[in-house]
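As noted in the main text, all predictions were made from sequence alone. Below is one such record, for Multidrug ABC transporter substrate-binding protein.
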Amino acid sequence: MTTRYAMKIALRAIARNRSRSALTVLGVVIGIAAIILLESLGAGAQDLILRQIQGMGAKTVVVMPGREPRGPSDFVQILSSSLKERDLESLRRKTSVPSAEEVMPIVFGAETASYRGETFRLTIFGSSSAIARILDLTPSEGAFFSEDDVKGRGEVIVIGDKVREELFGDAPAVGERIKIKNRNFRVVGVLPRKGQVSFFNFDEAAVAPYTAVQSYVLGIRHFQRLIVEASSEDAIPRTVRDIEATIRNSHGITDPEKDDFHVETPADLAETLGVVTNVLTLFLVAVAAISLVVGGIGIMNIMLVAVTERTREIGLRKAVGATYRDILTQFLFEAAMLTAFGGLIGVSLGAFFSFLATLVLGGVVALDWRFTFPVTAALLGLGVALLVGLVFGLYPARRAAKLNPIEALRYE
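Prediction:
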């Protein structure tokens, strides 16, 4: 029997039982769709986070409060107030960290801004004027605040494009005053539409001198981040060592195990991202594999039912000359084609839902999310689907091929 003829018979058998065939491959469809969706979202998330890390600059080092997280309980320490003004002053001394080009503090919080009856919930950042250069926050209108504004706790502010749109509409914003925490901040600049920069959406944010934000808005005396720009990428390891030594000296820490801060570099973040992504991918693929196995068992059961229902047909084919190999090939083709169809549908559904998720994350959540189609995962998924069909279809196919033609023709 030729391959073409075997495929024709298999297609005819599948077409005769459309509903049963659809239900049979449901597990395979779900498994493959899950693999495509999860791989696509994982790749999209990795791409987004890597771009956010790159947005910080390859030479930047971030000092965080609390020791380096080693378990769930350690993440609470990130909210601690261990980074103070004395740490900023110590790091800015050239004798402490010779390779540091710039040291800038970061404080932030969610607040409501108002202007002539219009209100908008924004994230307000407090920093030095260096943030404009390091994070490429050059205003499209007006200018950024100066270091004199920082020293004088100036109530001046640079707003994101979405903030301007919500509070001012088409009216000019530069020179106007917006109220935050009963303080009137004068708008000196408007940022162009930026989207996500270093994990923050600056379109819905505003930046002001950290001295003013600490005193008038947040009411705190500590920093949530200290960002250090090294002289070069090669200088980062030395910069990290100097930062750790300087802050330990400032905090009176002699045992590194008792650190109340930790330092992160772009390489550290990328490495952590890779580990987390790999673990999640393995876990999710394992879940999808279980779905495929369940689908394979379903195919085997349905194929066994089909063999029983078509016993007389098998007997008749054997009576007119069909061999063991012909019957085996026919049923294997049927199982493989079922799972192949299921795999194609699964790939299509996975890609569709992944694209839908991209639209939601980009349009609704306002993330700079890019659609990524995992070609390798799709090809692997189709190959696995075919393998599932062949493996789980082998037993029913052999059972059909071994039927005695005389007994099969007597079957009622």
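Residues 3-52+270-410 form one domain. The chain has a mean pLDDT of 82. These features were considered when defining construct boundaries for the mutagenesis experiments described in Section 2.9.
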